[in-house]
Design goal:
222 residues; alpha/beta; 8 strands
């Protein structure tokens, strides 16, 4: 488990007023938390969180049955262990873990249900279900210059309402990384349309942090 640098605390941290501007689709009432901070464009050597996320995102089609595959499986286990260690099992019995859908439909060669595998690996009494699924393929947000809005993103997803078991009191949306918060907002809106009184929270293995524009100056300060 990565613990060797400041990017990863191993404990959930709430996205508050200081962090929320980095994820501009989030609203003041949204309750989201994360474990680590991912720095884009810096590679896996940059930090423990970068290493974890890049292993988690390895594409099954090109890495299965290669030396890279065990790293992906280890990242799934590490992410699940972090979730399990930070949530109260008693309260989780009435909480459903719902993966934020990947960018590809299940029929696409690059479909990667990594967050479903993370949620299932958390283990009992935690329950995980693909309540939301992608029905229209789209480019992955981290590899696209396209700007999206939650309404357009929600139009590419469907809700499998029959998967919500009786007794579920809250939904915890899980994903590997929060960037703009567009995916969280789209999923939250779909759930709110279906179950208006259902509390929805966000749990992210990491949040994307943007480069510090004042780094050259702050480096001068001892």
């Amino acid at each position: 488990m990565p613990t060797s640098d400041a990017s990863w605390s191993g404990r959930l941290r709430l996205i508050g007023d200081l962090e929320r501007p980095d994820h501009h689709h989030l609203e003041a009432g949204d309750q989201c938390a994360f474990f680590g901070e991912y720095t884009p464009g810096e590679g896996w050597k940059h930090s423990s969180t970068n290493n974890l996320i890049l292993n988690l995102k390895k594409v099954p089609r090109t890495t299965r049955n290669t030396a890279q595959w065990p790293h992906k499986l280890a990242a799934i286990r590490d992410a699940a262990a972090a979730i399990r260690a930070n949530l109260d099992p008693q309260r989780m019995a009435t909480t459903l873990l719902v993966p934020i859908p990947s960018s590809k439909t299940a029929a696409h060669p690059d479909y990667d249900p990594r967050m479903l595998h993370v949620g299932e690996s958390v283990g009992a009494p935690f329950c995980c279900a693909e309540l939301l699924r992608t029905v229209i393929d789209r480019a992955a947000l981290h590899g696209s210059a396209e700007r999206r809005d939650p309404e357009a993103l929600a139009a590419t997803m469907a809700c499998e309402a029959h998967l919500l078991a009786p007794g579920v009191e809250r939904i915890l949306l899980i994903d590997d990384m929060i960037t703009t918060g567009c995916s969280f907002r789209a999923c939250r809106n779909i759930i709110a349309d279906q179950w208006p009184s259902m509390p929805v929270f966000g749990l992210f293995i990491s949040r994307r942090v943007l480069p510090n524009p004042f780094a050259a100056f702050t480096d001068l300060i001892p």
